[in-house]
Amino acid sequence: MRLVLLGAPGSGKGTQAARLKEHLQVPHISTGDLLRAEVAAGSKLGLEAKEVMARGELVSDAILLGMLEDRVSRADTANGFILDGYPRNLTQADALDALLKRIGQPMDYAVQLDVPTELLVERIAGRAAAEGRADDNPESVRKRLEVYNTQTAPVIEFYRQHGQLTVVDGVGALDEVFNRVVSALAPTADVG
User: Fold this and answer.
1) Which GO molecular function terms does the record list (predicted)?
2) Is 13 an active-site residue?
3) Domain ranges in the chain?
4) Which of 27, 46, 73, 74 has its CA 20 to 30 A from that of 126?
């Protein structure tokens, strides 16, 4: 199963992706982790990314897509994968769709974890306090959520138009949310 998890910061994507990885027995591919690994490994794309980041710029969609193509072409993705953190905009969604079709691994599902904004603010602020991060105050979190909503709304619509989007209530205990996600993927995946 090839799956992309969508959701605002604090929606629980990373937590649910880790659980789904074990349940579905497919790799969890986080673009942030992938980028750090490629830079650390000194790969051609990793070196390009390192140079871009050293200039204080964002890594281009082309570099990220190249890293993703390499990653999803590995043997451990034969039965699928879970993408977390990508695509973040419509350009990335289009490029990812074209890549996956070209390599014969089209996306099966896009699952959006739906969490009300005020709860997201509470979650992130609580996490920031626990980690001692002063930059995650409620106002800066709300601003980041506005940017996320502006950029990601077209991605959500992209997957809705392709008949791949499933919206799951992301509020509740971890097990409740996990069971909702797995049920949304049925009949492909049974709750275990």
Assistant:
1) AMP kinase activity; ATP binding
2) yes
3) 2-33+81-185
4) 27
